[in-house]
Amino acid sequence: MASAGMMGVYTYVLRGGVFCNAQTANVVVMAINFGKGDWLGGLYFLIPISAYLLGAFVSEILPSPVKRLGFLRWDTYLIIFETAVLLLLGFIPLSVPHQVVQVIVNFIASMQYNTFRQAEGIPMATTFCTNHIRQIGVGLAKAVRKWDSLALRRGLIHAGMVFAFFAGAALLTFLCPILAEKTVWVTLVPMGIVLVKLISADIGVEHDMLDRKPSGH
User: Fold this and answer.
1) In which residue ranges of the chain is pLDDT below 70?
2) Helix residue ranges, H only, the chain
3) Does the predicted model carry a pTM greater than 0.90?
4) Bridge partner list, 119
5) Which of these, 74, 94, 5, 66, lies nearest to 217 by C-alpha position?
6) Using only C-alpha atoms, what is the Rg of the chain?
7) Helix (H) or strand (E) holding 126
């Protein structure tokens, strides 16, 4: 969630003023352009939408063949790939058309969203906050109406996810004027923590469970 908040700020502040973690805004703006008769302007948004679609497609196809390798889980390979891509983005100057970086972030954000679907057994998205905010309200309502401590705990976990997203976004906003295009490298910190934990589990205590679907799915 922290890395997703950072990616959102990176593309919004430095790479063209758009959010690439989700596609609702792109669909809306495409519809607005079509409604105004700007067909060419509207058709452009098929590019980021297609990149997001491709990310979901690839992340749905690859886990099965990866599982047969019997070395690391798909989740771990994805974080390795995502970390490598984020590292490379820091070498792309701000003078390069922003759409290049936007499409790349669309692709990896979609893969992350489609791969990591739960945390501690609780369904959730890891690239945007809308559902988390809704679930906070749901958890609070159940806690008040039914004195449901489990619902309250789930709501608090969702609140923690929103805070992680917010904290990552705030930190990167502060660093953008200082580090410019290299600001994206800050995302490697939370990604690196996740990667170390996943590799440690895959080659260590959970190596005999590589054939099982990860609980994050």
Assistant:
1) 213-217
2) 2-9, 24-35, 39-44, 46-61, 63-69, 74-89, 98-115, 130-146, 149-179, 188-203
3) yes
4) 122
5) 74
6) 19
7) none
